[in-house]
Amino acid sequence: MRRIEAGSYYSYLPEGCKLCRKGAKLVLFVTGLCNNRCFYCPVSKAKFGSDVIYANEREVKSAKDFLEEADLMGAEGIAVTGGEPLLKLERVREFVSIAKKLDMHVHLYTAIPADEEKLRKLSAVDEIRFHPPELMNPDAYVEPIKTSKKLGMDAGFEIPAVRFEKRIVEIVNETDAFLNVNQLEVSESNWKHVVERGYRVKDYYVENQDVVREYEKANKFHYCSARFKDVAQFRRRLIRMAMNHPEFYAVTRDGTIICCRIEGDLDLAERILSKWEVEYLRFEEYIETSPDIEVEIREALKSEGLKLSLVERYPTSNRLVVELTEI
Ligand code: SF4
Question: Is the pLDDT of residue 313 over 90?
Answer without folding.
Answer: yes
